[in-house]
Amino acid sequence: MVDERLTLKPGIEYIFSSLPQRQSTAVGVWVRQGGRNEPGRYKGIAHFMEHLLFKGSTRYSYRRIKEEIEGKGGQLNGFTSQEAVCYFARVLNRNVDRALDVLLDMVLNPLLKESDVERERQVILEEIKMYNDLPSSRVFSLLDTSVWPSDPLGQDVIGTPETVGRVKTSTLQQFRQQVYVPKNISIVVCGSAPASLQKTLDRALGRTSRGRGRTPSIRFDPLIPRGFTCLKEVKSFNQTHLALAFPGVGARSDDRFTLELLHTVLGSNMSSRLFESVREKRGLAYDVSTSIRRYSDAGVFNVHCGLDARNAVKAFKLIVAEIDRIRCEKVSARELGRAREYLLGSLLVSLESPSNVMLYIGDSIVCGEEVMTYGQLEERIMAVTAEDILKLSRSIFDYDFCKTAIVTNEDADYEGAFRRIAGQQEGGIRNG
What we know:
- By secondary structure, the chain is an alpha+beta fold.
- Helices cover 43% and strands 18% of the residues.
- It has 16 helices and eleven strands.
- Strands 1-2-6-3-5-4 form a six-stranded mixed beta sheet, with helices on both faces. A five-stranded mixed beta sheet has the order 7-11-8-10-9, with helices on both faces.
- The protein is globular, with a radius of gyration of 23 Å.
- The two termini are 43 Å apart.
């Protein structure tokens, strides 16, 4: 998977993964500090900085940034997560040098003009409104608040109108000086690396100082507080969205492969138990699925469905029934075999894409996780047994730590109904 990994002269890490017989290459510049490392007063500043870096650099205007990538058939984008910011492009092999030069100049030499700051602030405020108006997004914002009420992981990466409003040009400049330093930056190239790439790196990094900056905050395992909860938000949405959260595992946990198979069996695709029970047999929801979020030291397992408000309690009861079944009965050999095949097939298809390989390597580095080859991943997945899935299910599906959220247009007593179904009237642990 990783063919070359070294530290370049100013202290920036460089990782190369060779993907032969591809006509395109993915380039990513990762900054290893995200939303959870920000000062609370300026929540959203990492995301704010991400926006501004596309507004121009010392050598490239905002128009040229787009022209040099998109104007040559490439794709350009960026994202901010809880633990990192990534600026990336996928381009034809012959344009790798220029794409890398553009991305590095954006990251290392941004203009950060005051006029751009004020203009982009308005853009971000509109982005916040957009997410708040999407019930499928809003329900997870509520859920995170319930899962981690005292930890930055429980706060939206984008920030709030109040925190975004506090960010000034001087705040951003100070943030860049502290965070955008070589020791926090990794360059990941997946695809073709022309011989001239080293010259591009030398030129782009030649005038970069090491900079002291700051190391990301020491992370302690954020605990999910005990107690079944239900957060409700009533708005004039046409569709109700319901979500559940249970404690998951971190990116370095030995149980992460077991959790992937549990996710596959329970809700990752159209063959999953929840899809079959909630949608296929009863037609209660268009979308019902599970998802996993992993951080370097923590994780969460989610269940989500979008449906009519009148069906929310029925769907919750079915979800609980399927959770109880998987934590009380071993998965059959046939079902486990299908889950393995699906997971391994999905991984192999995903790793055909240079962009996905770049994202996998970069995310692994950020989380301190080993970058495994497909063969190593296959070995770990094949080693998971039905007993492993049963043991993990019994560990994480504890209703005394279950958090729920619902965004709906109907002001009903969902919490009372959910508590009764989950056996949480007295706040005790439900054993199913």
